[in-house]
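Every protein is a chain of amino acids, and every chain bends into a shape of its own. Below is the pair of lines this work produces for a single protein:
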Amino acid sequence: MSSSPVLILLGLRTSGKTTLGAIASRCLSTTFLDLDVLTAKMLAQPSAGDAIRSLGLAAFRAGEVRALESQEARSAGVLSLGGGTPTDPQARESLKAMRHAGSRIVYLRATPATLKARMAKTDLASRPSLTGKGPIDEVDQIFSERDPIFRSVADVTIDVDGMTERIALASVLATLG
């Protein structure tokens, strides 16, 4: 395995990171890792949402950075970040190091309208509030806070609004050259 993932996907909740990451890893014949799953495991919690609810966001972010810097994350072929991973300065430094080691960082950017529509089709009870509002009600605020950060971290931004899964996957794989 390499010392850094070939492909790192970032984006807000329901942008397609996990879905496209799993499919991309199969296309690339490599391993896939969802950082939320690894973080929850490292924090001894059933899920990332449970970890945020029971430990608080600050403790979750600290665990997320540890997970990102772990050998398990560094040896994945395709890595899907948590929706807020790049908001942590230490995580951004780790991502910068991964980029220098050859990783391609792709931002799956969806507008708030798209994210809300997708989120409405999911189990909202599993999504903890990050702002005190409901998960759908906080999308606009989180998008406006994180979009500039995500753009600055990514090598490539793919606007996934209106894309089918197949076209989005092709766009992601095309970033690898």
Notes: The beta strands are 7-10, 32-34, 78-80, 104-109, 156-159.
